[in-house]
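$ fold --in a.seq
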Amino acid sequence: MKNILVHVDGGERSRLRLQWAVQLARLQGSRLSGIFGQLAPPQRVGVVASWPSQAYRDAEAASRQEFITAIAGLPTPQWIDANRGSSDSIGDVAANAAKYFDLTILGQSDDPTSPDIAAAVIAGSGRPALVLPAAGPLGGIGNRPLLVWDGSAASARALNEALCHLPLQSPAAMLILGASDAERTALLQAQLGSYGLEPQIEHLAVGSLPPDDLVLNRAADYATDLVVAGWSANHGPNMLSHLTVPAFLVG
């Protein structure tokens, strides 16, 4: 993983998100670029609206300087200003930008009434996204991963992108959603074993509880520090709303 993008803004979690992204970039020897996008209304003089507002320009300048300071010593970055004030517009710009990077690091939305920028990037970019929760401390990167498999193309992309690009370590756990299949399990074990992982494997039938809830419950049980999962309209959005640990998600 040589080219990473991180979303920054003026929010309280932005600095922590940037620090976490820098840690991963240094570990991987990666180039780290930033995209600034912050919810903000236009500047109004009477009934006339103009964009960007002075508050937005000030926040962008402050975030850009903090970004430049944080990435000292990393390969030459790129700075992208989404130059939008609504979350759906920022999401569109960020999704288009993410297409040109190996990974985009984003934060969980803390506003349930607003369109989710992370969801827009995952669904619209075709590239992996690493979403950090809106609350709580952030620990290591993949020291106790939970790998989620449901047999879909999205889960295959997520698992193999994570294996190829993230420093996943043991102890690891794998949650296989759906009926048990010995042949499929053996193929998964062989693939994981080629990367030095021998996870504890659990088969879990999907019943009345939504799959995302099952995954997050098991993430707590395993004390995982990273969830790796595929994304679809029925599997993923609810996870973003209730995220408690970082999640590596691919649509």
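$ fold --in b.seq
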Amino acid sequence: MLGARAAFFAALFLLLTPRYYGDVFLNPKDVPFAAGYVWSLYYLGRVFRVLPRPPWSLLVRTGLAIGLTLGIRVGGLILLAYLALLLGVHTVAAGLRTRRPVPCLRLALRLASHFLVVLAVAWPVMLAFWPWAQQAPLTNPFLALEQVTHFPWPGEVLLAGTWHPGTELPWSYAPHWLLISSPEPILALLLAGALLVLRRWIAPRRQQDPARPPAGARGDGGGPRRAVAAGRARAVASSSAAIRLLQSPRRRTGRRRRTL
């Protein structure tokens, strides 16, 4: 919704994250993989928005982003699973709407062809940057993935003053690590975002007057629709207020003058 402004603040928050900023100078794997992962998710989102007929150029760019990510780490294979999941969700949703098997089957075949196009672009790009995978292009990447999931590491990790084996970390390790390694402004914004989501979820429920009879008893069915519409209106108003807060005072003043 915020466009370039959101991208600017995302980059700013990354620079304010010590772990990410520090690894930029010494980590040749994780930081490029994170960038390629986000790049791939961006194109997956664009593909999902224009289904069932995404442009060929968009599919090629999606395959290029996923292929480059795979060339850094084999964990990028999950991006292909994400793509398959998105295409499957779209197919199932279309089938539930139409309830016609033949058009649904045609749609599934069309979306499967889209997946093959992305795969046909991503796999050669991955092989170009992974010499070991070139020796057995159809098996070595999956062997590497299996090895990564069972990689033996005999080291220990310090957590809350106690050393734990790296293969036997408690469930609290990940949230504890994220909490102490994330800057306070980002944690505050995450909390604010969670509260906004909660507010949007409970807002339609508060629109119904408990003193009035249910909408089904009146036969019009308009109560829930009006409540949802009011909740959406307040959500849009909240988003508009956030955008106005991010705008410069001069820009807001100029817009007010043009309105007058």
